[in-house]
Amino acid sequence: MKRLKVAVLGCGSVGSQVVRLLTEQADDLAARVGAPVELVGVAVRRLDAPREVEVAPGLLTTDAHGLVSGGEVDLVVELIGGIEPARSLILTALEHGASVVSANKALLAEDGSTLFEAAEKAGRDLYYEAAVAGAIPILRPLRESLAGDTVTRVLGIVNGTTNFVLDKMDTTGAGFTDALEEAQELGYAEADPTADVEGFDAAAKAAILASLAFHSRVTVADVYREGISEVTAADVASAREMDAVVKLLAICELKDGAVAARVHPAMIPRSHPLASVREAYNAVFVESEAAGQLMFYGPGAGGSPTASAVLGDLVTVARNRLAETRGTGESSYAARAVLPMGETLTRYHVSIDVADRAGVLAAVATAFSEHGVSIQTVRQEGRDDDAQLVVVSHRATDRQLADTVEHLRGMEIVRDITSVMRVEGMSE
Amino acid sequence: MKRLKVAVLGCGSVGSQVVRLLTEQADDLAARVGAPVELVGVAVRRLDAPREVEVAPGLLTTDAHGLVSGGEVDLVVELIGGIEPARSLILTALEHGASVVSANKALLAEDGSTLFEAAEKAGRDLYYEAAVAGAIPILRPLRESLAGDTVTRVLGIVNGTTNFVLDKMDTTGAGFTDALEEAQELGYAEADPTADVEGFDAAAKAAILASLAFHSRVTVADVYREGISEVTAADVASAREMDAVVKLLAICELKDGAVAARVHPAMIPRSHPLASVREAYNAVFVESEAAGQLMFYGPGAGGSPTASAVLGDLVTVARNRLAETRGTGESSYAARAVLPMGETLTRYHVSIDVADRAGVLAAVATAFSEHGVSIQTVRQEGRDDDAQLVVVSHRATDRQLADTVEHLRGMEIVRDITSVMRVEGMSE
Q1: Is B34 one of the annotated binding-site residues?
Q2: Segments of chain A assigned to CATH 3.30.70.260
Q3: Is A403 helix (H, G, I), strand (E, B) or coil?
Q4: pLDDT for the residue numbered B275
Q5: What is the number of other CB atoms lying within 10 angstroms of the CB of residue A314?
């Protein structure tokens, strides 16, 4: 009976859980695959580094290149992350006839096409469910379950760190800095939290989601990005007053046949299914023409959940190897244009401190209408010697909305703009 | 270039949407499949029946058997429902070399093994994502994404009618009969609502979910079933008092290597992700060893959403045909025993009207402990001349709990037991 040989590249928190499952679940995996799956090597940077799992010393190697180019490996699991050497190793593995499972969102979002073309040329699989939203099966449903439908929109909470921080700000009233510190103490945020907090991680995932949802190639350079470091306690309080909550969203949409992909904080109504995604959980909300609204929810990170997604891919890829076939692969036939952020449709929530005198509301309303933006609601709150206007617009292009805010800033009656945030997930 | 020929059996609300999508999305489908997909016949009972989609007259036939046995069809979509003639038609289609997509939960739950064996023998696919939870991709994630993990529990809201009725009872305080009438008026419940209300529909889905989750064959006869027709406004109010909500749950669990599958109303905490599933939506909550907690949410029924799931399967099955391969297929290698309901672990919520005198609580507590059931919480509420005890137990076998309730009913100090309901989704 054929045995399938697996090499694992990287043995950090995910890699060690993959190695553990490959060992502990060997019998179940063999039953599911239809042949034994044998771990033949684990590439690491340092042989003597401490790790969460015991690896037989004969399996450990620092020569990742040698491991994937020996021609003896059927399946390569790439868990190194980053661009290089991960890209070279994946390309080498494919050239030498191995199928690949990867969790490398940065690489796939930056240079997926090089990898997909290499997989196509080699006639091998490249699967990467673990690259987006950890254990949540979202790429496979997009690629396969919804393949007969037309996806129109994807809204995702795809970064656990920022969701934890925003959830803390919402439930405790804390400011960004305090909430981030708590996240760091609890291990939900890195010492250098930039990749999460500034939306880089979510932007890579948005590029992957948009590519799959719309059958087109979208790279991270196509994704508009704003992080959460400028979200204030006042923004969160203002959201609360309109029965909304602030989330960092990855939004992928079709507009007139073009793709728009963006990551930014947004207010969403508390009645929206995404609003109930708490702590470091992730969820992806999908709108399609026939299926309607779907949501996929679960842990977005962590060694063990991510390893579950890797193993799911590994079973499929292994079965394909035995059947001498390939899975669905990438589908980029639609080759859509990418819409600039300025042309994306959204709506704004703007809190404005204004002089408390007659005609103020009319002047503000005129500023909106001069930019072609219509107002959905205005709430006026008197204070001692000034007043607060809270405006929620109807949908308009981001450029019209940004121009309106710029205009407001220059008005004599406007003392300060205390909060500007996009609003998503409301029915028009 | 090879064209794939598709026959659709049944042209009701789902069938007509499938026919519409096959026609309208023909170009996209061809791109996703890799070859044109051509509708060659639609089998109906009456040629002149009114339908939601225009079907070219030459395609309509009343001879379903002739359509699937002509040997010219690559893919058969079975949307007739029920046991016969659906079973014979699927078996004939497989024998004649067609791959099959079905949405027939009743047939799969009653006699899936006959179908799976026929598909295996024919070397063809049998896919049925649409049979459980409409458009929500749940079977594919269970079968493929979680194939490297060990699922331990599935909790599903898999019947939209009963969820609508229970949601109405929760939000308006209505009784079962009034809520059901409203559901019927709005088209969420049939004129004869038995299949939904008494849990038969959910039980068929539970059998399918348990089979896939635990790699074993579970039929509808193995599923314990209670409907919602005896859920009272008092039960719902009692749930509300403990910050819980009543849902009809399909529960599939592993216990000591055996499978337990059951459908019954249960109280779940409002903080549980399933509690926020409103109206006629469905959701399936999955617990697994490595991935942790996942939830899949969306519309559980309706022509268009169900057609989306059918088309997703059709694309996969069509691609497999072109590659001359099969998909994952059924995996029943684990061949697990089925646990009787009495041995299933659960917990009870019991509301008891008792005589208001000293020692009542002690007597009731003694009754629980005599059956080996420990109590988690007791709430005592005084009334005019009697008192109400609300007891939530710790986990015990269903038999121990049922015996306890039987014992309580026979006690002299117990005037009435006003509500008995299982509680799920609480941490122990």
Answers
A1: no
A2: 342-423
A3: helix
A4: 93
A5: 29
Phi, then psi, of B43 in degrees rounded to 5: -90, 130
Is the CA virtual torsion B269, B274, B279, B284 positive or negative? negative
Q: B210: helix, coil or strand? A: helix
Helices (H), ranges, B262-359 = 303-322
Catalytic residues of A: 205
Kindly report, as residue ranges, where domains of CATH 3.30.360.10 are found in chain B. 139-299
A145 CB neighbours in chain B (<8 A) are 129, 137, 140, 309, 312
A11 marked as part of a ligand binding site? yes
A152 phi and psi, to 5 degrees? Answer: -110, -25
Give the fold, CATH level 3, of A4-134+303-322: Rossmann fold (3.40.50)
Chosen from A19, A129, A144, A328 to mutate, greatest number of chain B CBs within 10 A: A144
Whether residue B57 has a cis bond before it, omega within 30° of 0: no
Q: Is A12 annotated as a binding residue?
A: yes
Tokens 């799911």 correspond to A312
Domain B139-299 in CATH 3.40.390.10: no
- Rounded Cα–Cα distance for residues A274 and A425 (Å): 9
The letter for the amino acid at B140 is: R
Q: Which fold has domain B4-131+303-322?
A: Rossmann fold (3.40.50)
Chains A–B, number of C-beta pairs less than 8 Å apart = 179
CA B42 – CA B276 distance, rounded (Å): 39
Mean pLDDT by 10 residues, chain B (428 residues): 92 95 92 93 93 90 95 95 96 97 96 94 95 90 88 96 97 96 94 96 96 94 97 95 96 95 97 92 95 94 92 93 80 88 96 87 94 93 77 96 97 93 87
What number does CATH give the domain B341-423? 3.30.70.260
The C-alpha atoms of residue B388 and residue B385 are separated, in whole angstroms, by: 10
Looking at chain B, which residues constitute the CATH 3.40.50.720 domain(s)? 4-131+303-322
Give the architecture (CATH level 2) of A342-423: 2-Layer Sandwich (3.30)
Does pLDDT of A333 surpass 90?
no
Instruction: Identify all chain B residues contacting A333, using CB atoms and an 8 Å cutoff.
Output: 31-32
